[in-house]
């Protein structure tokens, strides 16, 4: 399961526990209240760990791409025939500015990163 789906599932479980906790508070059932608070704390810790790992991986990938010796914006014509460009330039990584990686790299247009000039 991807990290994004796992985070979403954990957030859904936290939300469900919040609703059950509210009902337990109304009933003044202390044992159930403590149980849900412990479960929610455990799940929130897992979500925080997953988000940290996700940001760590993104920064690692960003660093690898920024260390590549050559990068330049991809023209509209090259974007139209991306398959030919990728066959011509081995190891080419294309980053779109609206993706997480593109925002982390602060690119303004579709940019290609490669080990050799293209």
UniProtKB/TrEMBL annotation:
It comes from the Bacteria. The keyword Disulfide bond does not apply. InterPro entries: DUF2810 (IPR021230). Residues 54-70 have a biased composition (Basic and acidic residues). Residues 7-53 form a coiled coil. Residues 54-83 are annotated as: Disordered. This is Ribosome-associated protein. It comes from Vibrio ezurae NBRC 102218.
């Amino acid at each position: 399961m991807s990290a994004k789906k796992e985070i979403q599932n954990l957030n859904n479980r936290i939300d469900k526990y919040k609703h059950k906790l509210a009902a337990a508070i109304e009933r003044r059932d202390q044992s159930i209240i403590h149980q849900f608070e412990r479960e929610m704390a455990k799940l929130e810790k897992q979500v925080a760990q997953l988000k940290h790992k996700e940001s760590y991986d993104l920064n690692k990938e960003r660093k690898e791409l920024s260390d590549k010796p050559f990068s330049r914006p991809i023209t509209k014509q090259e974007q139209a025939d991306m398959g030919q460009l990728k066959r011509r330039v081995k190891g080419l990584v294309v980053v779109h500015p609206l993706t997480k990686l593109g925002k982390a790299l602060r690119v303004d247009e579709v940019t290609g990163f490669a080990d050799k000039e293209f």
